[in-house]
Amino acid sequence: MFLTWSSFNNIRMLLMAFMPVIIFYLIWLVNTSEGIRSEEGTLLDLICWPDGNVIPAIIACGSIAAIVIEFYGLYQLFKAGLPKREYNVTSGLFYFIWALIFIIIIFLGIMFYSGLQSTIIRAKIKGGITKAMLRYTSHLPSKVAIDRLQTHFHCCGRENYREWFIIPWETTEHNPESNVLVVRKFVADNVPYSCCSMNAMWPCIHHGVTQEGTIYKYNPTKQLTIWTDGCEEKLISEMMSISWRFNAVMALIIMAMVLQIIAVRYLHTAYNNGLHVGNKITCNAYLLRSTDTESEGIPTRKVLKRRKSHKARTLEWVMAKYRPKSKYTTSSGSDFNSSDELLKPMYE
Question: Vertex 57, ends 53 and 59: CA angle to 5°?
């Protein structure tokens, strides 16, 4: 591929206009990951520490590194339009290409780790919510985690609100180390206050949920005043939604960086071959090193000449006209005549 100064400058300006868009999405990744770490991440940490902080922190660190590299590349592209004697950016463009490759590898690793952790977090959430429910009265952080979880996601219990009926959450007469809700008997049809629905238009009934009340004309078969959905599926779906959103943005950034690498590589090779603002010539630019360059063309022609000369000598030997110049070997006319006689039937 051959580049002129006009095409070189057009590609350079297009990259400089395109890079702020990538920087904007990288800043969005940093802000969003920090917001998720302080909201959903904190809730997740209360249930299964430290999964709520790990992935957002890794995404934020990788995005900050990518922002620094993008600004570095923007500076190098700006200097590429200045005189080469004062601002030689051959090495700078080369380092920028490898930095982009490094960031792409990091983002791919983050996406792979996020997908791998999604299955692990699913199992941790199940056990974490159950353990926190069993330790609701004996462990204050567990109580805070459950209350915040149920209030934030408008849910009650791990799978449904009836799980609270078999947990003595108002007393401490249970084993806090147990994390399973099996072989348990009915305790009371009570749920914590954090299960109360904010959509109900009458007072919240969270004690005696399944019993009809005459004071508030409460009828549990028609309308409950608590959330009925479980917290497990809501938390998992929220984590999966966040993960897909992050992965989609990072995939778009990776594709944009691949295009950057291709464009910057062509600029780098053309710039290295002598194309700059002080030498507006047409230069060869390539993505991968070409084998058909002028420097490599001469040895190829020499090899062809050697092959042709070798074929000519072979033909002369067959025609008995080749006489090797050596002091150790001699040939007589009779030998050549005998060779001619042997070859006559072949040509006749």
Answer: 130
67 contacts: CB under 8 Å, gap ≥ 6: 23, 26, 27, 30
CA 258 – CA 241 distance, rounded (Å): 26
- Whether residue 31 contacts residue 133, with contact meaning beta carbons closer than 8 Å, is answered with no
| Dihedrals phi, psi of 295, to nearest 5 degrees | -70, -25
Q: pLDDT tens, 114-168? A: 877 777 777 777 778 888 888 888 888 888 888 988 998 899 988 888 889 888 8
Instruction: Residue 34: name the closest of 52, 50, 57, 54 by CA.
Output: 57
Helix residue spans in the chain (DSSP H): 5-38, 40-47, 51-79, 90-134, 140-153, 231-272, 294-318, 333-347
pLDDT at 301 over 80: no
Round the average pLDDT of the chain to a whole number and report it: 79
- For the chain, what's the residue count? 348
Backbone angles phi, psi at 163, to 5 degrees: -65, -25
What pLDDT is attached to residue 252? 94
Q: Angle 40-33-263 (CA atoms, 0-180°, nearest 5)?
A: 150
Cβ-contact 213, 205 below 8 angstroms: yes
118-157 exposure pattern, b = at least 16 Cβ within 10 A, e = fewer = eeebeebbbebbbbbbbbbbeeeebbebbbbbbbbbebbb
Q: Please tell me the distance from the alpha carbon of residue 233 to that of residue 226, in angstroms, as a whole number.
A: 17
Burial of 61 (0-12, 13-18, 19+ CB in 10 A): middle
CA distance 136 to 167: 9
**DSSP string of 92-124?**
HHHHHHHHHHHHHHHHHHHHHHHHHHHHHHHHH
